[in-house]
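Continuing the batch. This is chain 6 of the set; chains 1 through 5 are on the previous pages. Same settings as before, nothing changed between runs. Recording input and output for traceability.
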Amino acid sequence: MSQKKLKVGILGATGMVGQRFLALLENHPWYEVTLLAASPASAGKPYPEAVKGRWVMRTPVPKLAAGLTVLNASDVGSVAGAVDFVFCAVDMPKEETARLEEAYARAETPVLSNNSAHRGTPDVPMMIPEVNPEHAIAIEAQRRRLGTRRGFVAVKPNCSLQSYVPALHPLLSFGPKRVAVSTYQALSGAGKTFETWPEMVDNVIPFIKGEEEKSEKEPLKIWGRYADGRIVPAVEPIITAQCIRVPATDGHLAAVFAAFEKKPTREQVLEAWTGFSGKPQRLGLPSAPRPFLHYFEDDSRPQTRLDRDAGGGMAVTIGRLRPDPLFDWRFVCLSHNTIRGAAGGAVLTAELLTAEGYVQAK
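Output for chain 6:
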């Protein structure tokens, strides 16, 4: 990577995930945030004014943002012409988001998206960089479809599955056939805090709209194969999910039950986890946690409050591996939903695509 930093824009910069992008990129060695964009309601305001009373990060508004005026994210020409690529975290209807992201791609500006609009698009890679970096090749087919030279859209998967998919991935050689998972998801996954959602204090809500479908289907695209210009989803394992909102600020905990074609021993499972290292770790990417997966022998871990920040919020922690009478094995795992599961995952994806030449200076 050259010493000259790439110019980055954040679309949806005033929301919770947009704020997380800004916080994570404050001192990034490769990228410099030079532009912030949001809805027309925020456009034209200095960024500190636009987020006044809405800033939810534990750290102050970064100095780099203090002098920036928020632009209208829908003004594609002005934004795209000023940056090398954008991160997208807009809060818009799915169809509008899809059109906006494709408009940026057609304007020759790569889009690294936190949104769900293009997760089902066959030539759009949906990436957990340690799990399916090979799907980056779909960008070539996407560029042919869009008629672009450098523009494309790449997305990260839903936050609900980014604790258990990385834990299952090193076990694929044993042929997982059936997986049942219950996720216990923090308030920030809904873009809220206890102050903005007081109904969650001392409460659990057993329904999160759309989460269970995403948790069951998106892993199959992640584990799919690239063929004839598209990513073909895998057919196994069959996944059934329940997604539950719990009164935690950050961190998604998952309870996983898995049955295998060739049941591994406990030692084999632990060896697969502790020995796993993905492409981001091998390339030494700036946001790659080392290790990616961490197993606790203590039965009381991982705990959301204690362990969500492992690896700077980018690692996945696992515990309580034990036999199951209906499946083969059960365990629990945890990831930080707005870092690994949202902004941090997109930043790591951008780093991988930069290292591989898909994201370059204009």
